[in-house]
Amino acid sequence: MIKFVGGLNHVFRRSASGCKRSITVIENKRWKSNVGFVGLGNMGIPMAKNLLKNGYGVIGNDVSAERMKFFRGLDGAETADTLQQVVESSDAVITMLPESQHVLLAYTALLNSSKPEQLFVDCSTISPESSKKVSDLAQQKGCKFLGAPVSGGVVGAENGTLTFMVGGDESTLKAAEHLLSCMGSRWVHCGPAGSGLVAKICNNMILGMTMAALSEAMNLGVKLGVEPKVLASVINTSTGRCWASEINNPVPGAVDKQSPSNNDYQNGFKADLLLKDMRLGESLAEGAHMKTPLTRQTVDVYAQISRMGWGDKDFSIAYKYFKEQQS
């Protein structure tokens, strides 16, 4: 935990033995302010790294002790054992959590310890209704809140090129722009609270369907004898080109990039999270009395992938799924 004491930073670090030790250090002048970051997963850690690179002090928190230990090893990074400590030590707090229930629980604790006018930005992909609930709670506490889910995947998080789809007050977005600019290259104000989530869910419905379609087509082409790199090159210079084909190609070796398929489908956007987002899309469609047959078929594919035990793999593992279905 970090506390400010007479112009000094009073820092509690954990030693290698796991015990807390107290250190007083002169405040690092390169730090612009302290930002709390809750959720140090595949997306959270690279996003927090980019805040560190841009001169912010970052206080991280995660349910995983292993991730907390890794994060403490980064230059300028600290960790806090509780959400209360995160809030008390930070001027702004960013959250990146898996599901609606995690966000609602986290913000119950965060806002209980918040300061008036404190800024909170939730980058999780959750239901629009859940984001609206958090926004209302923040308003009641006199705090500023944005629901700002992201697009760009782990590669975008690492390169600082994420797109933020923002729901909330425009003046709050203005106040958050410098933080967002450290982690992304673009942000779009989609409307009031919850609007950014609607846009993100629609985007991820398309993402899931295009990955399933690409995986199916690449599987066919490779089975009929076309080399993966040749097929990918044709697609990426033709009308089938898309983010999935060019950046996150599902076939190992098809592209010379940081594609998870080149790393046994590790460290990407988990298939189970894509499935969660597709189901959120189905729920929104049901509420709007709309039919989404292509989404339903894609949900079926990823539900089967999850049952096969591949839910923690990158969602491009759909290629392996189709390949094994044919064997």
Q: Any overview of this molecule?
A:
Strand 1 and strand 2 form a beta hairpin. 47% of the residues lie in helices and 18% in strands. The longest helix has 29 residues, at 195-223. It has a six-stranded parallel β-sheet with strand order 6-5-4-7-8-9, sandwiched between helices. It contains 13 helices and twelve strands. Helix 1 (44-53) packs parallel to helix 6 (153-159), helix 8 (195-223) packs across helix 11 and helix 8 (195-223) crosses helix 12. With 327 residues, the chain is α/β, with parallel strands linked by helices. It has helices at 44-53, 65-72, 83-88, 100-112, 128-140, 153-159, 170-183, 195-223, 228-235, 243-246, 271-287, 293-307, 318-326; strands at 2-5, 8-14, 20-26, 34-38, 57-61, 77-79, 92-95, 119-122, 144-147, 150-151, 162-167, 184-191.
List keywords for this structure.
327 residues, 3-stranded antiparallel beta sheet, 47% helix, 13 helices, alpha/beta, 6-stranded parallel beta sheet
Q: Largest sheet, described in full?
A: 6 strands, parallel
Query: How many β-strand stretches?
Result: 12
Our measurement of the CA-to-CA distance between the termini, rounded to an integer number of angstroms, reads: 54 Å
- Shape estimate: globular
* Strand composition percent: 15-25%
Q: Kindly report the spatial arrangement of strands forming the biggest sheet.
A: 6-5-4-7-8-9
Helix-residue proportion: 40-55%
* CA-based gyration radius: 21 Å
What ranges have pLDDT less than 50 throughout 5 or more consecutive residues? 1-31
Kindly name the structural category: alpha/beta
Element-level helix/strand string: EEEEHEHEHEHEHEEHEHEHHHHHH
Average of per-residue pLDDT values: 91
Number of helices: 13
